[in-house]
């Protein structure tokens, strides 16, 4: 093979490598790399595996979409208002993280999606969320709407057998961080403190620009 042919072949190989590298760097989902230093948890399948579109009913009885809810960085929680301990504690922790961030000059919000639409009407959800933060968004909907939102965020819930009025609901307890136009970026466990959450959310907000 001539020197000219070898040079041509090498040039083609380099061009192909650069094209492949560019495709890898720019393919969907890779923009999340800007948050790598902020994440506290690894998600199987990547951040894109969690979240998605939904339609629910807000505290005013209006049907809203996910894009209408997530207008700023949002701490999202799935629970129910009759929950005796975990949901109130987690909701207060999330609201405390919001207040810490607001004190630092960040615009954030919290949102609560019920997994008990049978009892949690818009009015009930509003009364519940107002206890923790006046701007916490409360969301309910039909059983089908709630199930779709729960499945999008890979949450678990199951109504326990028992009294028709005083039953409990088993459910997962993660809190999710969702950014407008980006979607889910990370989640928080119950042991995370408001200060730890605020620090990580501030990191994400700064990285998002």
TrEMBL record:
Binding-site residues for Cu cation, renumbered to this chain: 83, 87, 171
Keyword line: Copper, Disulfide bond, Metal-binding, Signal
GO MF annotations, alphabetized: metal ion binding
Matching Gene3D superfamilies: Glutaredoxin
Intrachain disulfide bonds: 83-87
Domain Thioredoxin: 45-209
Family annotation (InterPro entries): SCO1/SenC (IPR003782), Thioredoxin-like_sf (IPR036249), Thioredoxin_domain (IPR013766)
Signal peptide: 1-25
Similarity comment: Belongs to the SCO1/2 family.
Name this protein carries in UniProt: Electron transport protein SCO1/SenC
Native organism: Celeribacter indicus
């Amino acid at each position: 093979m001539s020197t000219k042919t070898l040079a041509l072949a090498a040039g083609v190989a380099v061009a192909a490598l650069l094209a492949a590298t560019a495709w890898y760097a720019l393919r969907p989902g890779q923009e999340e790399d800007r948050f790598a230093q902020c994440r506290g948890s690894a998600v199987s399948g990547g951040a894109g595996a969690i979240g998605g579109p939904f339609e629910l009913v807000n505290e005013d009885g209006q049907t809203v979409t996910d894009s209408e809810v997530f207008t700023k960085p949002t701490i999202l929680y799935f629970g129910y208002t009759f929950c005796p301990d975990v949901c109130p504690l987690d909701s207060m922790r999330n609201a405390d993280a919001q207040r810490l961030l607001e004190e630092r000059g960040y615009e954030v919000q919290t949102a609560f999606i019920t997994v008990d639409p049978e009892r949690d009407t818009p009015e009930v959800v509003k009364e519940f969320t107002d206890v923790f933060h006046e701007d916490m968004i409360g969301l309910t909907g039909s059983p089908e709407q709630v199930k779709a939102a729960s499945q999008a965020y890979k949450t678990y819930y199951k109504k326990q057998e028992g009294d028709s009025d005083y039953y409990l609901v088993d459910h997962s307890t993660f809190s999710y961080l969702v950014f407008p136009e980006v979607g889910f970026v990370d989640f928080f466990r119950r042991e995370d403190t408001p200060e730890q959450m605020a620090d990580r959310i501030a990191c994400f907000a700064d990285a998002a620009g």
